[in-house]
Here is the input.
Amino acid sequence: QVHLVESGGGLAQTGGSLRLSCAASGGTFSNYVIAWFRQRPGEERDFVAVIDWHSNPHYADAGKGRFTISRDNLKNTVYLQMNSLKPEDTALYYCAADVVYARDSPGGYDYWGQGTQVTVSS
Here is the structure.
């Protein structure tokens, strides 16, 4: 069973950048597909990006060209570099893990972190 902890959230201005981290423990990290989701108050959890076992990324349209997901298997950490931030990027960001590639389906991930808040001011 893997335990996930997100960090790196905070307040940014429109056009600014943040780098989120998802640190994993308790499992063989390289066996897991890691995804980022985000959730705004009163809304469903939306897919942001995913990286598979071979570091192949896939992005939701909202983040293409602005977000970059990467993984460091030696540090058991996945990163989400977010550039050109917009106010609509404001949300609670979660990382999720599973040994099966569920891509953009929240229900396909068994393990979740507690989330890190990202707030983008206009």
In short: The mean pLDDT is 96. The radius of gyration is 13 Å.
